[in-house]
Design goal:
Methane Monooxygenase Hydroxylase, Chain G, domain 1; mitochondrion; 116 residues; 4 helices
């Protein structure tokens, strides 16, 4: 019976805290910039067919690719003590070579230059 009453107490307490946070976090000042979403660096209230910079899109794709690669590198580091040393070195070397080839290709295609 005691556990049931404690559970009910915490249930009502958490609901009370959620309702209080909703009341206190109510936005009272409505501004155009605060109400509009940020869309790729241009004003979403204007014409929807304005062309945006393709270079901006390519930089975001490059960022996402390298972000995923960093997550894969972290997993390689954790495997260091679990696998054979020669296998770990071969796998890490192969992965880093692929990264460097991709970086060289992006540099060769001038995708890393922001001013173009």
């Amino acid at each position: 019976m005691m556990i049931m009453s404690i559970t009910i107490f915490f249930f009502f307490l958490s609901n009370l805290m959620m309702m209080m946070s909703m009341i206190l976090s109510k936005k009272s000042f409505m501004d155009r910039e605060k109400c509009s979403p940020f869309e790729c660096g241009f004003d979403p209230k204007s014409m929807s067919r304005i062309p945006f910079s393709l270079h901006f899109f390519l930089i975001t794709i490059i960022f996402l690719i390298f972000d995923v690669e960093i997550a894969l590198i972290f997993s390689i580091i954790t495997l260091f003590k679990m696998v054979n040393m020669l296998t770990w070195i071969k796998t890490s070397f192969f992965f880093i070579i692929i990264l460097l080839i991709g970086l060289y290709h992006e540099w060769n295609q001038n995708m890393l230059n922001w001013t173009n």
